[in-house]
Write a structure and sequence with these properties.
The chain is α+β, with helices and mostly antiparallel strands. The chain is built from five helices and seven strands.
Length: about 160
């Protein structure tokens, strides 16, 4: 798939938002993959609702939270971005690091989407190990921030989320 190919799950809202975001991030950073996963705190699961490469990360894929406690504390509980800039740091945070490495990834930025002080989803940006500079991370964070409210509205209105959202 080309860098700008995409596949999404829940219709034109997330398709448009995810594709626009991916095209901007792909054009301005060395990122190789963008996914958006909704968070279900009752089940402790993340469900992929957008993927720039569905052959590798299919939409609808659900995974139990199997990451390091530092990732959970930072990204889910505190709603702050998590960065693993090298393969070594990625290995210590993610149990699926081998699949990520086989895809060509070795650096990741996870940007939580927060509503009412709770994380509702996470935007994941993957790049080769050591490729995402601080400038790239800031640029990606800014691009996500520009669409965060719209993404959160879509997720709350389209995805079953605990707490009556």
């Amino acid at each position: 798939m080309s860098k700008h190919s995409h596949r999404t799950g829940d219709g034109p809202g997330i398709d448009r938002l995810g594709t626009e975001l991916w095209c901007k991030i792909a054009a301005t950073t060395p990122a190789i993959l963008l996914t958006i996963l909704s968070w279900d705190p009752q089940q402790g699961t993340l469900t992929r609702i957008y993927s720039s490469d569905p052959a590798f990360n299919p939409v609808g894929g659900t995974k139990k939270l199997e990451v390091s406690q530092s990732w959970t504390d930072t990204c889910i509980d505190q709603g702050r971005r998590f960065v693993a800039p090298t393969l070594t740091e990625l290995q210590s945070a993610f149990t699926d690091w081998k699949a990520i490495q086989q895809y060509g990834g070795g650096a990741i930025v996870n940007l939580p989407l927060v509503a009412e002080n709770s994380t509702v989803a996470v935007v994941n940006i993957l790049g080769p190990s050591g490729s995402l500079t601080e400038d790239d991370i800031e640029r990606a964070d800014h691009l996500v921030s520009n669409v965060a409210d719209e993404l959160v509205r879509y997720i709350i209105n389209s995805t079953p989320i605990a707490g009556g959202h």
